[in-house]
Amino acid sequence: GPELMIAFVYVIAGGLALQSLEALAICTSFPNTDFDGHDLHPLTRRSSASPEECCTLCQTHPPCTHWTRMPGGTCYLKTSAAGSRSFPGYTSGCANSTACAPPSPGPPPVPPNPPAPPHTGSYICDVQGGERGVCIEGPGNYTNKSCDGQCGTPFQGCASDWDCSLAGVCDTGTKVCRCDPWASGSDCSYLNFQPVDPAVLGYLDPTHSSWGGNAVLGSDSQWHLYMAEIGCAKSGDKRCGLGGWGTHSQVAHAVATNPAGPYTRKQLILPPEHHNPTLKVSPVDGSWNIYSIDATSGPIVTSRSTDEGATWSSGTPGVVVSTEQNPGPFLFKNGTMTMWYRADADLPTPTCSTESIGVQFCASPNATCSGGWNPIFGHTAEDPSVFVDTRGNWHMLVNALPGGCKPKLQQGGHAWSRDGVVWSEPRTGAYNGSIQLTNGSTLTCQRRERPQIILNPTTGAPLFMTSGVTGCDPIIPPYSGGGDCFTLAQLMVV
Known about the structure:
Largest sheet: 5 strands, antiparallel
Radius of gyration: 24 Å
Distance between the termini: 53 Å
Low-confidence stretches: 1-24
Structural class: mainly beta
């Protein structure tokens, strides 16, 4: 049966006290089941080595009566099983045998594809492909790179704003999502962009390749972009491409009067090796804070400006705030900071990479970050970038097909959260490398990574997204194609 009966031994006053069988706490567990919602507040989630350990955590943390353990080991402590649903790989249960009867799993999830034949090919549908579908290389059921067109997941209608990716509002009468302007798709999980002017493109410097960054509007009414600029090993060479990122990456400053660009280079800010910069403005004192990695795998360092980028402190290498890499900081009004980062984890299978997103907590924007957990969700990802929308909902953009995941055209990921703690799995393909141009043509880039959303400073709504792109066709000079790369800025629909 579905129930797993477990007897526990408790440690009391430094010694072991074996309780009688009648007094033993009995744990009931249900495989492939999620108790959605009803989490303890403040949210209580811990790492557990097994469902039994997760149950023990619930029993020792009243008023917990129920629990759910994710495949990666994260244990959620809860007060109800009312949100019971079928969910492959999850295990849920009750703190004792009287806390709940076997839950009603509700209707099974709609399969993303028709019943698949036995493994016969080298392509597989990504588990978070969504209505538009994502087909990637891997031991799967398909023999062609389109997965026979079977990767789309039909949307079944919404019951709450969560089903609209918190990027829209659910009309519960019609079960239709009303998406915010910057979002699209039947579940609002996809980003909604304006076409790009091929004469603009963002930051496309005649001399330097670049690989993403982000921008802020200064008091001079100019947009100030801080991007990862990749120099050349040989003096005098130009646009040497992404290959030198691990040794010749530096942070440079460029300006534009329009958020989409074109941006004109002003100066070098941080010398090699600094990569993957993220600029955050402190809501406490207005200082500009750049977070970057000081080597290919970290640590994360920060440099600070109190005069809108005229001067910077701690530039070589900067103040170390984390031993991790690929920073995704968020600065709070109370002076603290949360740092999301790229890590590695034992992720649920099938997966095309072990890269994952973790989180740490920091007492201030330049304090050492610690604690937290990894992974925050089960899908592989890197390059986290977090923002809060006008309704107070949290969103994270990631590269959802990192490492050995191929092809990467659909690698844009979008996850959402009500509190910045409990996250959805990311929607893969939320943005992609097919960039619509204002002349009606399409710029297709094989890789589009390092996503960063910049908010409208007046309304707080998403205004544009920057990203690093490479392998683009057609070639638009001074971009030279191949391994060359540049920083694209694309306006959102507003």
